[in-house]
Specification:
- The chain has six helices and three strands, in the order ααβααββαα.
- It is mainly alpha-helical.
- It has a domain of 104 residues: Orthogonal Bundle (Arc Repressor Mutant, subunit A), CATH 1.10.10.
Length: 159
C-alpha cells in the first residue's frame, strides 16, 4: 500500500508541477500580449474586485509585497498610455494613498480576462461534458481538502 501511495504522490507532484509551470508560462504570455506583467494584472484584478479603488497598502499586503514594491508597480501602471490607474491622496489621512482603476485599466483588465477565458473554453471544449464534470469534481474536492485541512497560514517548515 505504501509503495502505491509513494508512486501516486510522485505522479501527482509531477503532474501538478507541469500544470502550474505551464499555466504560469501561458499566463505570462497572455499578459505580455496585453503589454502588462502578471504582477500588474494582479493589481488591476484587485482594484476591479474592490470597486475600482483601494488603498495602496492594502493591495501590497494582499499580494505579500512591500509598499515600495507596490508603489513601483502602480507608477508603471500610471505611466502607461493610456494610464491604467491613478493615485489619489486620502483627504482624511494625507499619508494614505488610494489607487484608482481608470477606464483604460478596466478595459485592459477585461480584455485579458476575455482572452484567458477564450483559451480555457477552447481547452475544455476538447473534452466531453462528462469528462469536464469529473475534472471539476476532483479539482473541487482537492481544493476543498487542501484549503480546509492544510491552510496556508499553518504551514511550518520541518525541523
Amino acid at each position: 500500500m505504501g509503495n502505491e501511495l509513494d508512486q501516486d504522490i510522485a505522479e501527482f507532484w509531477t503532474l501538478l508541477f507541469a500544470i502550474v509551470s505551464d499555466g504560469e508560462k501561458r499566463f505570462a504570455a497572455h499578459m505580455a500580449a496585453h503589454e502588462i506583467t502578471p504582477p500588474q494584472f494582479y493589481v488591476l484584478k484587485t482594484l476591479a474586485e474592490n470597486g475600482g479603488r483601494c488603498p495602496i497598502g492594502q493591495i501590497a499586503r494582499q499580494h505579500h509585497l512591500t509598499n515600495a514594491t507596490m508603489t513601483g508597480l502602480v507608477q508603471r501602471l500610471e505611466a502607461m498610455n493610456p494610464p491604467l490607474v491613478l493615485r489619489e491622496r486620502n483627504a482624511a489621512d494625507l499619508r494614505s494613498v488610494y489607487v484608482v482603476l481608470t477606464s483604460g485599466g478596466q478595459e485592459r483588465f477585461q480584455a485579458v480576462q476575455i482572452d484567458l477565458l477564450q483559451q480555457l473554453q477552447a481547452v475544455l471544449g476538447l473534452i466531453s461534458q462528462e469528462e469536464r464534470q469529473q475534472l471539476m469534481h476532483f479539482l473541487s474536492r482537492y481544493v476543498n481538502i487542501v484549503t480546509q485541512l492544510f491552510p496556508v497560514d499553518h504551514i511550518q517548515p520541518d525541523k
